[in-house]
UniProtKB/TrEMBL annotation:
A Gene Ontology molecular function term of the record: DNA binding
Organism, scientific name: Sphingomonas jinjuensis
Family annotation (InterPro entries): HTH_MarR-typ, Metal_resp_HTH_trans_reg, WH-like_DNA-bd_sf, WH_DNA-bd_sf
Domain HTH marR-type: 1-142
The keyword Transcription belongs to this UniProt entry's keyword annotation: yes
Keyword Translocase among UniProt keywords: no
Protein name in UniProt: DNA-binding MarR family transcriptional regulator
Coiled-coil annotated spans: none
Any matching Pfam family: MarR_2
Length: 148
């Protein structure tokens, strides 16, 4: 592999990025049209729905989004009444984000559509292929984290 030339179309990190962008764009169009949410806003809603209450810093670590993106999305969601900030009893310098009733209703409406979109994207693949792909993604993440 040492004598290879860089050809973007064959460079796996580039292909991962392009594929991720294509999937994110398809999702973004759907969530924006149906719910008026950006991708970062949707990610926050999903993470907070799963966590119950979580700090912006923890969201950034979990989603790999930068602090400014997380902050802007949180502000927008709080302003829309979908999320609330609460004092963090473990760290007075930070706040916990929680979904409001309206936020939980929104998540309940979005989650089935997210799963349906995932099904559409992976409909041409067998269950074994999807499982192998998911396992490989986890291993790629592991390797990338080891480089940091």
């Amino acid at each position: 592999m040492a004598n290879r030339s860089l050809v973007l179309a064959n460079f796996i990190p580039y292909r991962l990025s392009v594929t991720s962008n294509l999937v994110s764009d398809a999702i973004a169009r759907t969530y924006e049209a149906l719910f008026g949410l950006s991708i970062p806003e949707w990610r926050l809603v999903a993470v907070v729905a799963e966590a119950g209450a979580i700090t912006q810093q923890a969201i950034g670590q979990q989603t790999r989004m930068d602090k400014v993106t997380v902050s802007r999305a949180a502000i927008a969601l709080v302003e829309r009444g979908l999320m609330a900030r609460a004092a963090n009893p473990d760290d007075k310098r930070s706040h916990l984000l929680e979904l409001t009733g309206a936020g939980r209703q929104l998540y309940a409406a979005i989650a089935p559509k997210a799963l349906a979109l995932e099904e559409r994207i992976f409909a041409a693949f067998s269950a074994e292929e999807v499982a192998a792909f998911t396992a490989m993604l986890a291993r790629i993440e592991e390797q990338a984290l080891a480089i940091e």
